[in-house]
Amino acid sequence: MLQDTQLSHKFWAEAISTSTYLRNRSPTKAVDGMTPYEAWHDIKPRVDHLRVFGCDAYMHIPKGERGKLDPKSKKCILLGYGRETKGYRLFDITRQKVVHSRDVQFNEEEKKDSNNAPNNFNTRVEVELQCDPDLTHDDHEASDVAPTEESEIEPVVRHSTRERHPPDYFRMHSTCLTFQQDPSSFEEATTCSNKSEWIKAMECEIQSLNCHNVWDVVPLPEGKKAVGSKWVYKIKKGSTGTTERYKARLVAQGCSQQQGADYDETFSLVVRLESFRMLLALSIQRGLKLHHVDVTTAFLNDELSKEVYMKQPEGFTIEGKDNLVCKLNKNGLRQSSRCWNLTLDSRLREMGFSPCASDPCIYMATGGNGFCIGVYVDDMVLAGQSDERIQEVKNALSQHFDIKDLGKLCYFLGITVEQDEARGVIKMGQPTYTRNVLEKFGMQNCNPVCTPVDVNTKLTKASKSA
User: Fold this and answer.
1) Of 69, 229, 363, 429, whose CA is between 20 and 30 Å from 43?
2) What are the extents of the domains in the chain?
């Protein structure tokens, strides 16, 4: 592709990305009667937008980015197709950068002449002459000897003895360096090396669902359709990057629900990172103690208002009752995150807390005792002046929710928190994330630098007026 279009080798990644895009939309022997894209997405791909790689593309310049006498289009080179945004990937020759645009006109007829060599060239073949070792001639004698039919030498073409393997197309481009992978299906979880841990996690999840009376096993009523269920697996890491526990969650596939009829909103408010840092700074200034609380099975604390039927979970089908389904009593569908947030908000208001106007996920005590709560879905950070007051809030929460007391705050949202109450210092860091990034790019053994900032940069103290 690069040779045909005479593009520079620096576009090799764009060429591989485009070729992969085209191969996924082309017939293949791997899947019979369809393309890989259709086999994965269950819809036929569109091909009317495909254009010749490397052809001239004239991108429309919006009215706000051009003057009255400026041209309305700019000549670019087609490099591929957008993945996260609709449109074409174009190389702006003037600015030397890749841009995206949907309003493009192409000139696919004009072809660059990349074959300047003549057509009648001679092909050179390496041959090995089989000669009689007893006959020796000098160069002058050999040139005068005319070969006869009996002494004509048969050329032997050399063949490679290297072992041949079928090509592995685009392996370098499609391979992604990842960390420890979580299972993506029930079959994968029950056949991997840690299958005993995953089976134990699934049994714990089923036991928790039965304790909360999440469903009743009943026959499927006529005219009703049961949604599917899926296991979601996650390895929980600690602040040092070590594995703390294996977590399995059973979720109902709410793809059959219709927005407006079955649900309205699906989002759940989460605390901003800036607000979390502000909460830490406030705890230092006012001498507050920080604790961490996690709500177990938070999404099951809201009752379901409509009848929803779900297929029995994979691997835990009741023997002899394969034809029965689960009638859901608790909310565990697409809107469950929003319902949980409303339930928690109502409970915190009853306990005497009110959300801040700048960040509704930061709750302040209305009594003026300086108690704060930061909420991130089902994780909460409690900031209070005494252990007694913090324990009082924990007891109030445990009366309505099944909470897990994680003690003093040391790890939250992938950030390690080290509290030094004697010195009034809190240290934040992401050593696990940093270590994973270094391992991903093969730089775990690189030489550390104490001061990565430019040593020649001179910093001055800001004035009070600024």
Assistant:
1) 229
2) 2-107, 186-425
